[in-house]
Amino acid sequence: MIAGWQAIPHEAKRENMQCRQDVVQWCSWGFMLLGLGFLVRQKKTETPYGRYVDPSEGRRMVPARVAWFAQELPSFLVPVLLLATAEESSSMGRALLLCTFCLHYFQRTFIYALLIHGRPCPLCIMISAIVFCSCNGFFQGYYLLRCAEYEHSWLRDARLWIGLIVFYAGMAINIHSDQILRKLRKPGETDYRIPRGGLFEYVSGANFFGEIVEWFGYAIATWSMPAFSFALFTMCSIGPRAYHHHRYHTPYPSSWTSR
Questions:
Q1: Confidence band of 136 (pLDDT split at 50, 70, 90)
Q2: N or C: which end of the chain has fewer CB within 10 A?
Q3: Domain ranges in the chain?
Q4: What burial letters (b/e) apply to 105-132, b meaning 16+ CB within 10 Å?
């Protein structure tokens, strides 16, 4: 890891042959560069799912619930399997943080995915999301279980509690915003409506904002480069989508609907 991340009071490099700090560092930089690449790309064009799918392109589509369940599941399942098959018991600190990560994806996989009634998702988008979530789930789990070590004093560290508060605040914003979005349309309706209430009164993509806040809170709580790289990737990948939503809504009154 780079020096700035090694000099953390409550985290020490584990003298364990199972931990490859050089791999962790390169993967972290890779996530950040990938995120910046998404940011540049999405300034020019929208990612083709949801309202931005062009039906004339003839893409293979997957039902929204199936797509969301399949693509979110690896981020929950892979860390759980790593934790279950770990050769040694994990400290409370590492287990707590990994369970915090898994909590988000439990909600996204088993609750959000079953409640969503959006438009079908392109198969290629679903597959790319499955690959990314599998890699990220392994990366975050590997780092916490094989590399990170938190001293007992870490449980009294302000960074842990500030990070967890920010994480759960972001999660609450994300879940509440998703609930508002689900209530916009009755079963069978496919037209788009401008959401009102909650943080939608202040930002066009309150659901995206909540998720970005979540992962920066998680990065603070773990105080690790892998978590920060994922938070940055999240901001760069879904932040532009919120911007495109804002441009999509701006010319129209709050009562506007569109097919």
A1: very high
A2: C
A3: 3-258
A4: bbbbbeebbeebebebbbeebbeebbeb
